[in-house]
């Protein structure tokens, strides 16, 4: 996906997040982040944008901040604070160059990889906020598709099992899990003895979830069950359940 579209996407999802939290009580519980009140979720989103921006500018690893330490300010200032955080990471990547290698959890990668990571996380947390506040959640199909692709890229990346030991449970002997769009194309993840491999194209797999890209995104991130409205499941359900239980980022 073009960098310009990723920039648009981060701003779109940050805007959606802002609308979801606007005027809502700070102590609203977030069911999909069960230990967090809404204020902590707001703080986390703005905090991680600023943290990623600093990492990109400095070109060195930084300690991952504690969401409970974030201070988003008064609720009436949340919108400005969140927009400034998104702009900060966007500007940092523009300053160093999207293709310039910077540190990531998985070694040096182009700076634009942090834009994708922030887009993915902001999108998922937009849903968390919308679900908590009974607000509509929307994400464009192309952005949802890229979030799914980025999710699978991380699961298949060398070194991911070191970061997330549970991911070692995703190794297998050729079992395939599919995320299929109504068109028939989508994503297929294959469990191999060496780890996860994935590809985009026609979906033929042992366990398949079919639905629109935004809904498949929410299944992949375990925000909604595979049998939620608008989705269908075919094939070996225990295989799919095992995948989802161990594929968390």
From TrEMBL:
Keyword set, alphabetical order: Isomerase, Pyruvate
GO molecular function, one term: metal ion binding
Cellular-component GO terms for this entry: plasma membrane
Keyword Isomerase found: yes
MDMPI C-terminal domain residues: 142-241
One Pfam family here: MDMPI_C
UniProt key word DNA damage: no
Domain Mycothiol-dependent maleylpyruvate isomerase metal-binding stretches: 10-130
Protein name, entry field: Maleylpyruvate isomerase family mycothiol-dependent enzyme
